[in-house]
Amino acid sequence: MTTPAPAPAPAPAEAPASRVMAVPPAPSADAAAYFAARLAFHTDVADVHAALAAGATDFVVVDSRSTASWDQGHVPGAVHLPTAQIPQLARQFLDPAVPVVVHCWGPGCDGATRAALALARLGYRVKEMLGGIEYWIREGYAVETADGTRQLPPDPLTAPLAADDCGC
Questions:
Q1: What is the tens place of the pLDDT at every residue in 64-110?
Q2: Pick from 11, 36, 71, 79: most CB atoms within 10 A?
Q3: 86-93 and 111-121 helices cross at what angle (nearest 10)?
Q4: Model pTM score
């Protein structure tokens, strides 16, 4: 008597794609072009701070917020140029040959993007400082206020506490 062969095991069900991979990553050449372009339009507060601390003069920081916001605290050495006044005042305060790094409140605000657009339309080369003044302060960098210089300790959720930079 022969024993019947066992039935074949069912094929494992194909795992559903994660939401991360529901849209596959771009080819590496496309990704390289995208990320290189992105860096041409953005910088971050740590790089701006490090450059300013080293005495960099190859860009100027522009704070596009209101006067009341500026008085509350701004990047030392920044130029105050509220977004609505850029078309009228940019040439008075900015050298068209010097690239501009513009910022506003923070990542939840498009003010810096609007200011960067206004400056670009006037012919300035411009980058947006990601994180704005919010992350400048959260990373523990000093600001000038109407009452003098102020500096808070770094926020441990946004800045390394035991190093000068995050290592990236």
A1: 999 999 999 999 999 999 999 999 999 999 999 999 999 999 988 89
A2: 79
A3: 70
A4: 0.85
